[in-house]
């Protein structure tokens, strides 16, 4: 079911392979982590820089921070947690998406209702 | 595939296969835990967002937060995540016990660096009159951010336990499963931190 060689799936979850035959797979897995690191560094540094130098208005900054955070979370799921859509093992993906749905309803609903209440209090 | 397979007693989100091995089963169960943890964090975020302006005349983000320290914490945690990935690869490709332990120790040191800077920040906030009892804003902050810090602390403890297990027993099936689950936990905590530094720190200082 999981030969551990795929770029997706769960690269680090297989049994030890050893030997030169796995050299290619090893480099591919290593590349996944290192490209994740490079992307994450960029996606972190840009919003920190924008806030540090106050490059935009506050509202634009919030939008930019939110977008960069979303993309970086995707990169982390993809490169570090190895949750990828076109793989055989998609149970984790469904679980994550279901959790996101619950979070949108509960956390979003909380902010919505309390924000509404707040605006009516003053 | 006969002795080692079990019907998955967990949530069936997809009925494409009926048998899974123990490794997949245990790891999927851990995913379920992580996602329930994500909901706790999500609601703490919602509480924080609601309390964000309830400073009651006390200090706000610009008085309390230090973007330099947060940048260091972010870097340390991100790097520790990738270094943990190196430990996972060392285990997968059979590089040996010593190599896995070396990467885990490096991860641990980066995790402790993160915690050191975080605790320093909290003490600075206390000194600046921004303790959890000051306002709704600081209460929500100290409910959310140290909760993540406690998770990182327990991750560090778990890492120490795994290192001791590996020194004692080498890499057996239990250790292998432990390293895999701690990998999920550690990478998950890094994702929670993305939301913390974006929403709490950068959002507050913007």
Q: What does it look like?
A:
The complex is a heterodimer of chains A (122) and B (206). With 122 residues, chain A is an all-alpha fold. Chain A has helices spanning 23-52, 58-79, 91-121. In chain A, helix 1 (23-52) packs antiparallel against helix 2 (58-79). By secondary structure, chain B is mostly helical. Chain B has one domain: Four Helix Bundle (Hemerythrin (Met), subunit A). Chain B is elongated, with a radius of gyration of 20 Å. Classes of the chains: A mainly alpha (122), B mainly alpha (206). Chains A and B meet through helix 1, helix 2 and helix 3 of A and helix 1, helix 3 and helix 6 of B.
What are the defining features of this structure?
heterodimer; A: 122 residues; mainly alpha; 2 domains; 3 helices; 68% helix; 0% strand; flat; disordered N terminus; B: 206 residues; Four Helix Bundle (Hemerythrin (Met), subunit A); two-stranded antiparallel ribbon; 6 helices; elongated
Topology diagram in text:
The complex is a heterodimer of chains A (122) and B (206).
Chain A: H1 23-52, H2 58-79, H3 91-121
Helix pairs in contact in A: 1-2
Chain B: E1 5-7, E2 19-21, H1 22-51, H2 61-64, H3 67-92, H4 97-127, H5 136-169, H6 173-205
Antiparallel strand pairs in B: 1-2
User: What's the CATH class label of chain B?
Assistant: Mainly Alpha
Q: Main β-sheet of chain A: number of strands, strand sense, barrel status? A: none
**Mean residue pLDDT of chain A:** 83
Question: How far apart are the termini of chain B?
Answer: 55 Å
Give the amount of beta strand of chain B, in percent: under 5%
């Amino acid at each position: 079911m999981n030969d551990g060689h795929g770029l997706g799936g769960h690269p680090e979850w297989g049994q030890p392979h050893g030997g030169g035959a796995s050299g290619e797979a090893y480099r591919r897995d290593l590349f996944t982590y290192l490209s994740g690191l490079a992307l994450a560094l960029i996606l972190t540094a840009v919003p920190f820089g924008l806030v540090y130098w106050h490059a935009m208005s506050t509202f634009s900054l919030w939008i930019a921070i939110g977008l960069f955070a979303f993309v970086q979370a995707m990169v982390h799921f993809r490169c570090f947690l190895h949750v990828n859509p076109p793989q055989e093992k998609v149970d984790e993906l469904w679980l994550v998406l279901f959790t996101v749905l619950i979070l949108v309803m509960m956390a979003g609903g909380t902010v919505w209702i309390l924000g509404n209440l707040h605006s009516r209090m003053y | 595939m006969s002795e080692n397979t079990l019907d998955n007693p967990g949530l069936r989100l997809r009925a494409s296969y009926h048998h899974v091995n123990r490794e997949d089963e245990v790891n999927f169960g851990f995913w379920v835990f992580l996602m329930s943890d994500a909901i706790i964090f999500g609601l703490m975020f919602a509480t924080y967002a609601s309390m964000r302006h309830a400073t009651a005349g006390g200090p706000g983000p610009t008085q309390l937060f230090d973007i330099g320290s947060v940048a260091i914490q972010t870097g340390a945690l991100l790097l520790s995540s990738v270094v943990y990935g190196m430990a996972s690869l060392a285990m997968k490709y059979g590089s040996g016990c010593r190599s896995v332990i070396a990467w885990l120790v490096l991860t641990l040191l980066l995790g402790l660096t993160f915690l050191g800077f975080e605790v320093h920040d909290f003490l600075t906030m206390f000194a600046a009159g921004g303790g959890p009892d000051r306002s709704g804003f600081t209460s929500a902050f100290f409910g959310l951010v140290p909760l993540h810090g406690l998770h990182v602390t327990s991750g560090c403890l778990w890492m120490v336990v795994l290192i001791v297990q590996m020194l004692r027993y080498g890499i057996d099936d239990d250790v292998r499963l432990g390293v895999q689950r701690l990998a999920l936990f550690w990478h998950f905590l890094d994702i929670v931190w993305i939301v913390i530094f974006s929403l709490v720190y950068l959002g507050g200082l913007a």
